[in-house]
Amino acid sequence: MTVHLIYGVNQHSCSAEGKTIAFVSSQLQHVFNLPPSPQFLVNGRQVNADHVLADGEQLEFVKEFGQKGLGDVCTKEIFQRSFDVSDEEWSECKSAGLHTTELRGTEVFLIQEGADCLQRVRTLRGRSGRDVKLNPTEQRIIKVLTTNGPLTGDELASKVGRGFTSTFRQLLASMVRHCIVQNDNRGYSVLRHDL
Fold this sequence. Notes:
This protein is α+β, with helices and mostly antiparallel strands. It has helices spanning 21-28, 76-83, 87-95, 111-125, 136-148, 153-160, 166-177, and strands at residues 3-7, 10-14, 39-42, 45-47, 58-62, 73-75, 101-103, 106-110, 181-184, 187-190. A hairpin with a 2-residue loop joins strand 3 (39-42) and strand 4 (45-47). Helix 3 crosses helix 4 (111-125) and helix 5 crosses helix 6 (153-160).
């Protein structure tokens, strides 16, 4: 007895039969990062928030307006030429988690993602590992990830002895921005072992 819930790439199945969409929406507001007033589709048909969900239904939250799409993509060659990126810096960007995909035989990626990654790489190149001061929680995160390998944010918070709160997520995001850890489809893992 389950209801299948979808918002963008987020999907979840749970026992929500007998509950109104308004109730389910309020419970998932922060988990799915739902927009303030989404449209509701049940099995592809638009319904109101007072609709009571039945077993086996699929509820999809749809944003009424906004933009979709990839954004601007770039090739390695254009990126290197435009941003004066050396082969060594390109390799460091890839190691730091720059996600690329192949499109018609050419490796492409989002320009903004590439620029952000390049900035992190160049920032790290400008300082040695000795200059990076990790607080005790960050040190525990590095130790846990080094010992256990890739972990989801929730698993990592549990092993570090913290709740998976917005503060902990912000701490992880900061560590990703500073190329200390990375987050990919396997979970969080250590990028810098010299700290």
